[in-house]
Design a protein that fits this description.
It holds the Pfam family Trans_reg_C. It is built from 13 helices and seven strands. The protein has 295 residues and is an alpha+beta fold. The strands form two sheets. Strands 3-2-1-7 form a four-stranded mixed beta sheet. Strands 4-6-5 form a three-stranded antiparallel beta sheet. The radius of gyration is 23 Å and the shape is elongated.
Length: 295
């Protein structure tokens, strides 16, 4: 077992102080709602469960994604029926809310307090329970704070912890419904932001080889995102793979010309020229110069 010497508050560095976070562990009776992947609930006994009915899962997911907000019945019916609610939608919605409350009650939750009726709709209250999205946002905020303090390693660790909360595509099979795909895209953007922040930090730390595979995976999903190619080209170049770094530029140029009819932006073009000329600003110790080069 590894033991660490105790450190007084006065001896803590700014990074250590920032990492001193009060950890709220789920106590007896607490559950965790999960939407960063298939919509599920981690019950008190550790089981991951979910309503079988699609509309109930959709209702739960939408309320979770907007927890703490009053969501109008109009928004809920639009979301649950993909913009084409039937005349009976409002009545059906009330039935679904009742059934969802019953489901939550079956898990030992105070469903009446968790889903409250507040004009013009409903409000989902987490209370002392957890939501993976809330945890994700807290960890991202902590990482941004740590990065601003110059605590790169701690910031990277916080970002890794945040991304570990994802269990697949946000909202899972609900993405087939237009309103939920829109919500999912917003969540995807937050996940991509976390990836980008981490790539930048890992390049600063000299961990360029370790992120190449991750960048390639994201490029497969976003083939025309120039910023991803910037990170990839730098990571490849610093790994001694100059030819591949140049090929990466060719890949983004081809994708943009064929799909969008435009050339890559000036940042990527300058980076391409820097790789061709072995610009000293690409060296590991010159991250400030690199940022200037691509700004």
């Amino acid at each position: 077992m590894i033991t660490r010497p105790s450190v007084s508050e006065g001896q803590l560095t700014s990074c250590q102080k920032s990492m001193t976070i009060t950890v709220c562990r789920a106590g007896a009776g607490n559950v965790k709602f999960l939407i960063l992947g298939p919509v599920e609930i981690e019950a008190q006994d550790g089981r991951q469960v979910a309503p079988r009915a699609l509309k109930l899962r959709a209702l739960l997911a939408y309320l979770c994604a907007h927890s703490g907000e009053v969501v109008s019945t109009a928004r809920l019916t639009e979301a649950l029926w993909s913009g084409a609610p039937p005349r009976t939608a409002l009545t059906a919605l009330h039935v679904y809310v009742s059934k969802l409350r019953q489901y939550l009650h079956s898990l030992g939750l105070d469903a009446a307090e968790m889903i409250t009726t507040q004009p013009p709709g409903y409000r989902f209250n987490l209370g002392g329970h957890d939501l993976d999205l809330k945890q994700f946002e807290k960890k991202i905020s902590k990482a941004v704070e740590l990065k601003s303090l110059g605590c790169s390693e701690e910031a990277s660790a916080a970002l890794c912890s945040a991304m570990s909360l994802w269990r697949g595509r946000a909202l899972g099979d609900l993405r087939a419904m237009s309103a939920f795909d829109a919500v999912g895209q917003c969540l995807d953007e937050r996940q991509t932001f976390a990836h980008m922040q981490r790539f930048e930090i890992e390049l600063e730390l000299g961990n360029h080889q370790g992120i190449i595979g991750e960048i390639y995976s994201l490029i497969a999903e976003h083939p025309t995102w120039e910023s991803l190619y910037e990170y990839l080209m730098v990571a490849l170049y610093r790994s001694g793979r100059t030819v591949e770094a140049l090929a990466a530029y060719g890949q983004i140029r081809k994708a943009m010309v064929q799909d969008l009819g435009v050339e890559p932006g000036p940042r990527v073009q300058r980076l391409h020229q820097a790789v061709l000329s072995h610009d000293p600003s690409l060296a590991l110790s010159q991250d400030a110069g690199l940022l200037k080069l691509t700004s």
